[in-house]
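Here is one chain, start to finish.
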Amino acid sequence: MNRKLLFSSIVLAVLFCACQGGRDKNILVHPYAPFTIPTTGPAGVAYPDHVKDDALSTRFEVKVAGVHVPAIRYDNMIAGKPGHSMDVARFASNSLIPKIEIQVMGGKEMNSVTIHPVAFYPQEALTISADRRTLTFELVEKLPYAIVIINGNDPQEASAEDPQLLLINDPLEEPEKKPSLTASHVLDFKAFSEDYLRKNPITDTVGEICRAAGSVTDTSLNDGRLFTWNHDVGRFVAYTDKIVAFPNLRKRDPNDLSDALQAALEKIKNTPELNTLYIPAGVYLWSGLRIEHWNGDVTKGGKPLFVYTDENALMINRQKECREAIEPAIFIYHSSFVTLSGRGMHDGQGCLTYSTDRKDARNTPHQGGVVIRKSNNITCQDTYSRDAQQWNWETHDVVDVNLNNIKGLSPYHHAWVDGLNLSSGKNISVNGSITLGNDDVFATGHYNPSDEFPRRTYSENQSINLTHTDRNPAEIRNTFAAAGIYNKERMHWSNADTEYIRVSNAMGWTRTAHCIRAGINTWATASDSDGSHRVLDGFYFDNYHAIVGNKANGDIRFTNYNASANWPLYERIEIRNSSFWAPGDTWVLVQTMADDQPMIRNLVMQNIHFPKPIAEPTAIFSGITNLTVDEIYIGGERIETFNN
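Its structure:
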């Protein structure tokens, strides 16, 4: 089935006239305003240059039910190269099916249009004007996100000249769910942080000592052996310096609110009537929203924490204190009963990190956008994140996590940007998500994502002296010492079984890699004394849509990846009512045999669409006890048989 829209001018004119109509007075549309940066920050000085205004799209003008909605140009520089491939128009409305009008500016006119998920937007539902400059259609009620591609259909075709357009239709925010800034249980972070900086101004000076020389003992090669590394004294360097390596630190910007955030959380913890941190409209420069060791369990003497971000709040990551530091946009670690809500933007500054310190596995720990580790009873509601340093959203050894109406908007070329990487955990529910990245749309069973630092440093340079560590150059000593400080828990990011993962009403866009991937770096740990298989139990996908360009060994891939004695065992996998844009040579790759035994007990695929045609659809299924495959469509045609 041809999914491009090709019109003669006569047909265009007829269709355009048939779709004209006035604005629906019953539809309420609330556009999100572009972020603008004030001249000065809370310290009374200008923000650093990387804190910039949102730029408007130069390609798209968007109206929703007759209301103008700004399209923001998601552009960034990556190591001196432009990273523009997507513009984003986000709004809230009381309708699931508002009329969308998109006018293209400059560049080429509309010769074809593809809207993803393609299965929801047949060509006959789209209308192009006679001058080929205006597109009109209605959003579908099945999914509040759509990606519009002009003169193409694939993520790989996006460019600075022809960006693609993401539409986000949030529900209107319910006023009763928004806390009052003046309520007795609410702490106003804007007022608190400004007062904190007045009382505790940042006085870092380039050249002064920021870290004393010291010694670190660590299992550097991940094999249990302990090595001791003496590191040099560290000094502050300029905020804008590149490749700032441990033990040095960047001089903090005077507007840095990292310490103010921790002081605010401490005040909430120690003030009985407080339980909510409210981040009002404004700009906040910091090391990310870091919530660590928060005990919210009332049965254990704790207090639940609520964090609300105003939709006009821009929380933007600073340049990391040094290359080895872990500073995601949101970091929830060893915490419980924490709820994040509100539609403020958490900007991880991933492109900046990639262009300044890099993030090579040999000498940096795993980074991320939203990272939830070793935590339980965590809820994120309406949470926006963009420009992740690595995976957009990720979980590690969590229990009872609910992610509702979440966003991960990182359509850039920098490395390792998965959409949802629910590496490990139990009872994780994603209901409503849109992610843009350049790696797997969804991944799980991805254990120990940070184990290469510093092991790989040694594997690439085995002249390193492990017997007399002080005989190594300072750079080597400092690198291994840094791993023992910033990445000491590298083998314990994900150790638990992964059980009951549910993803529904979700869409992801990426230039390459997999639509679904499971079983990467999965092995039993030393604590598994009985030698049992790690269990990956219960993965459920419903109304899940992946738009992927180049494939990496199959759209849907469940495997036993590592040659380990203890293979993972998958109990149940269900994928229903979903679509995968472009089938690879092997549209499903499920290979889970171990010792001639099947390692998936139940696999169900039902009502699955692969809109892009493929000449000889091939699937590989092996190692499955009970397999159900029904209603598979490739290129719009239902297939009854396929090569396996």
